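Ticket 4471: requesting a sanity check on a complex prediction with nicotinamide-adenine-dinucleotide. Repro inputs:
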Amino acid sequence: MSSPEQSPKVLLTGAAGHLGRQIATRLATTGCRLALCDVAGARLATLATELGDGRAGSTHSILTIPADVTDEAAARGAVAGAHELLGGLDVLVNAHGVEGPTSPVEALDPADVRRTFDVNVMSLFWLCGAAAEVFKAAGGGRIVNLASGAGLAGGAFTGVYHASKHAVVGLTRSLALELGPSGIVVNAVCPGFVTSPMVDRIVSSLGRLDLPTEYAHMVPLGRYADPDEVAETVRYLACEAPEYMTGACLVLDGGLRA
Ligand SMILES: NC(=O)c1ccc[n+]([C@@H]2O[C@H](COP(=O)([O-])OP(=O)(O)OC[C@H]3O[C@@H](n4cnc5c(N)ncnc54)[C@H](O)[C@@H]3O)[C@@H](O)[C@H]2O)c1
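Returned structure tokens:
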């Protein structure tokens, strides 16, 4: 276990989610000092208790920052709060998100489209902007965005989610260019199908449109990803990847788009 001075200080958004929990556990067990953020305050508190009581092998106390990151002030406040509470900030991991509506394009509810973009895209401008300010003052930092395989190809009836994740990929690459000279590296993880409630929700809503509901056979490895495989990839980018790796969108899809 690294000393407190060497432990990366990480703000993780979407921490109470299915992947967020796995990522938080991975980072805690590898010695990171964590500030966990999510709009779901009760689930966040439960997770922090579980991680903080030593069961996950963490020796650090776990801080929580309940916040709706679509609110610009709240998102910026989460970064400032993490920086203050942790006594510095080395890494921002953005793992919040929503799957958005599954619908023929002509039947989309504009409120659903806007909400999806507010959560998946707009929030990243506020979070990454606030982190860039902190990281520039410190001489460097790392940002890891949860994009998706949906950010690299289209999807019928899920165009809102796919378009929002293309935006995450575009923002990741753009910020790598913009922030590289300040010593800030920006990367994304692009998981394909992961065993998760989010995939279950998407697949069941596609089923209501009479579309296929079985996708594992399309994956060369014949299965969905385990959430911990995503968490390990995030940990690698957050804590271990060479600094020269920036602007990368690591695909983790069992060969689906190879
Ligand atoms: N599950 C998958 O198969 C999969 C695949 C590829 C990419 N992803 C991406 O990974 C990320 C996490 O997915 P997941 O499966 O854990 O989803 P999830 O629905 O289990 O968790 C998402 C979390 O984000 C939080 N959140 C939503 N809106 C928020 C807001 N406005 N402010 C703060 N927190 C908010 C939710 O409360 C929830 O805890 C998402 O960006 C998702 O698009 C997931």
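Notes from triage: Helices lie at 18-29, 41-52, 72-86, 110-138, 159-179, 197-207, 227-240. Leaving this open until the requester confirms.
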